[in-house]
Protein 1
Amino acid sequence: MGTTGMILAVHLKQAGCEVAICDFDIEKMNLIRHNGIHLEGMISKSSYFDYVCDSVEELLELGIDVLVSCVKTYHVPALLNSLDNLDKNIHILSAQDGIDICQKYIKICKESQIMRMVVNYAGNILTQNTVKVTYFNSQSFLGSINDRCPEKADWLANSIKKGGHDCQHLDSFQLRDEVWKKSLIVAAIGPICGISKLNLQEAMNNEDSVEIIEQTLIEGMEVAKAEGVKFDDNYVQLCLRMLKEAGDHLPSLGIDIRKDEKNEIDFFNGKIVRYGKKHYIQTPLNLTFTNVVNAMHFKKINGHSI
Amino acid sequence: MNPKKYKIGVIGLGPVGLMLGHYFNKANCDVVLCSRNEEHIDLIKSEGVHLAGTKDERSQFSEICSSIEDLVKSNVDIIVSAVKAYQIDSVLHEINLHNRNPSLMIIAAQNGIGIVDKYSFLFDLSKIFRFVINFAGNMNAPNVVNVTFIISPNYIASVDDSRPDISKWIEDVLSSVELFTKSVDSFELTKETWHKTILNASLSPLCAISKLTMREAMKIPDTNEIIERIIMEAMEVAKAEDIRFEKNFVKLCLRYLSKAGNHFPSLAVDLLNKKQTEIDFINGQLVQYGRKHYIRTPLNLTFTNMIRAITKENLKSNQPTLTNVNE
């Protein structure tokens, strides 16, 4: 129940779905149980939930049809441990950003059970049950990762749309393109803002940082193209225009780096580097950000023993 | 060698200025220090200069000026300019304003590329000398340098090779007190300048941005990879400038850097203290020369631009507000 999970839960609930929510944080879940979840900022919505669980086991006992996974990418292995012997009728919707996230879920279920959402909204946690929505106006995308459960994906996309957030159902190839496009943007701004502590507005108003953002995007695009991803005309310039207008919003990757917390860089810049190697495309900017961020975190964990 | 042959003035009393002042003084030269900070002057006058850390040496100075005008009027023959690279323009402007001595010589004691261009704007090339510094330290107090390393030799040259006698005199003077310094021709010096700059470029901004000490950056495989790539990228640019490298240069650099201490390079210290940095004379120059030769320098560009962007915000937030001006 972070930003993504809370916003999604409220929209599904407001669409009339039966929604059960789950988090290990008992205090937080007690608060939500009694006071519901509140969204403020760019939108203003509140929902109360009948089913509030403190464990995955409890959640699964409710007979759910779709498990929406909104945990941080590095928490997925722990989640998977709780999902051993997952019922083959349950579908998983991975609502995480980053490249190749779904590969992790294949360990516990079939590809046909997995759906993916490219989340194009964002916010900050104000209190344990309140999210300030800072970015909302773009369309999100959702699909089955091997096109085997299009009905369920279509139903979910329509439900989210009915709840008030524009979400489009795509086939797996279109969805892969959107995953890459979103990841390239996060990779271009997350580490720069995280390391430099500039907010997005400051970074986009500084010609030095804009140059790096543009080059990081171009570098990632080359790799993505080698993977078959298709881009609109003027993609880089359109991204820069969108980022310039995005205001104070910062992806969680940047926030985590800034706080020197465990972060998801290996699924953004790190993946661009790996796919670059696969296609013999150099990715020096993405390599620099991946390695610097990982080294900073390594120092935090290992401290004086370096 | 007559140590009294030329009177030396030193501007910029950071680690480089104080160490050079100390060694010229130790060699019995006439040395005048120059600082605008009266408290620093009083401290140096009363307690002298102390080199600590890997050294434990002290020296006393009888002549200390509080302005460049006074320094120039004190009949110095050679001025050692040891200010930060971004301060060179204003210092030279002031020297030029007050100097009436057509023979006055100046030693540029900054590391980095493109430094001499700044001096040659106001000084005749025959009066300019360039020092490649292979020692470093941090300031423990305004008169105390914590010397972190001295690796021989340092290099000195007349930038147009017209005054090898002066650079030889400096070699003799400094080497006599074991600050081993080698007088070379200008081409050799350019090569050493690039070599030294490449070493600085590979570690300084990385440490500044990641907040890793030099030793930590060298020990972590992720950052070690970046360091090696920066060196390789810079070498390509240098080669286009006709700089020659010894065999195994990259590996030798890494070996040299692996002995780096568990402290921050000066560029990192400046950034962490929210001060201006010398990035434009280090990685920034590699980017510029890369552009000249149509060679991509993405790592150097990334670090240059990151440091510049952070510095811009830092300096903005350091600017006095109406409230604290009134205070």
Note: Chain A touches chain B at residues 192, 195-198, 202-203, 206, 208-209, 211-212, 215, 219, 284-285, 287-292, 294-296, 298-299, 306 (CB under 8 Å).
Protein 2
Amino acid sequence: MKSYINSYELLCDAGDVKALMDAIYAKESAITVDKTYIEDATAGLGIMQYEDIYTLLKEVVSKVLKESNLEDFHNTLLILGSSVGGMQECEEIFYAQKSYENIDPNRYSMNALTDYLEKEFGFYDSRAISTACTSSANAFVLAKRLIEAGAYENILVVGADGLCKSTVLGFYALSVLSGDKCRPFDKNRDGMNVAEAVAAILIQNQKKENSIELKGVGASSDAYHMTNPNPDASGAISSMQDALKDANLNPSDVEYINAHGTATIANDRVEAKAVEEIFGIDAFVSSTKAITGHTLGAAGAVEAIVSCEAIKRSLIPPQANLTELENKNINVPLEPVKMRVKNVMSNSFAFGGNNTSLIFGECI
Amino acid sequence: MKKVALNIVSSAKIFAPIKIENLNEKKLVPNMMLRRRLTRNAKVMLYLSDQCNFEGGKIVYGTCFSELEETAKIANSVLEKRLLSPTSFQNSVYNTAPSYFSIINKDRDEIITISSGMKTSLQTLKTAALQALISKQRVLCVCIECLNIKNIEQINRCADYLEAGAAVVLEVCDDEAVEVEQKQTDGIIGALQDIFSVVNMHENGKNKILMEL
């Protein structure tokens, strides 16, 4: 049984899907240089204006339902990926009251978001995945396998993360946060931008007119270090090769790689090495985090949508904020490339050396 | 609804009212520097996986509240306007415990972490069943909650045992299997009840269970 992506929507700092793709092709970063989160320092952040994360979830999921062929989600499994879940609301209560007393434990964890969506939309069942920055990418891994196994006909993958003080300050403590707009794959890059987003994708076992196929998934662990990727890139190579194998494709079948590309020194060096080893200069590669920032647990879902749009529009996203490419043995386009895009690989890597690669392709 | 039959290869459980002692850390993690970085959840996970004789392969880990101690340290640092500890931050993510397992055991296979509230261990078991089905290999399913932080009484209204965990190694089988017997283990947080039920069945000689995907 094959997996087809039949409808999707997102909201991020750049706006909805259309606004995001316009920003990507125009190379207009949505990052704000913020002076409020960190004392005596700036931070490049992907900030959205909203009441609460639940409002965003309802808006995005409602749009996906409306665009789908479903009347409701009663026979749909919800798989949500998030790295902070309901922590945004709970940490604000704690900072204000200096006590846990008025924190509802059910509003703290990942399930705060799935519980809300289950109540609003009546999903058949739900599960929440939290593997840091691969959370929603891993939701696709499970979704594809569940559809292949014939367990479900409809699965809604949601990626959702709101900006939290603790994550912004945590990445700052790790010295990987850029004070400006991030510059993926640039020789002089100085770190990432933390950002927020909600994205939802309906995956079904039935093909529709404009379906994109989720062709392959691959996952691995570095088994090396909690935050630094293995410099030999073996973990990233493994997940990328596993995805190719699962899709029954060769590297030459992939036209574009939507990179994890956080713009940290370590990630981009290792990911470029992995891309160089598998694809050389035969596939285009860029990181759209230069536009959105790193939406953490939502990134896999956001970038899955970008990958689908690149296929539908036959237009490869260019790399924004790139002045001098560090690894010259990979093919990073500075302008949009108009060409038939049959297959796209999307990479997500996370703390703990958790690696996930997804392959999306046109339906034949 | 599709169900698969699973053979329980091995199982283990552990719990304590305040803090689990004797987790065999020195034997399991001889490297002192690495041992000192381990979180409570990671120490419990290393103990349980050792008890299950699991040395590597796919892991499905479940935790509702994850690394509460590290998260509390971060929240207090933010509150007191102190610089956050980079180690606490890297140790605060939900996949910390299985990641330490993979680093220590050089396990390069897939790790999935599930956090589904009071259904966490049920959803973790379902995901482990899927991973066992697609890989045709043995999968470690392990769920842990370590809630032993300062002032936890301000918020804890459901668990008598502040540290608890359970693990099973599962493989797909063709044998006749039975539904999981839902017997509440008193004092254990709801998030762990389903996996405790499975471990209890295994301890009582029932090795084949049915699990919905």
Note: The mean pLDDT of chain A is 97.
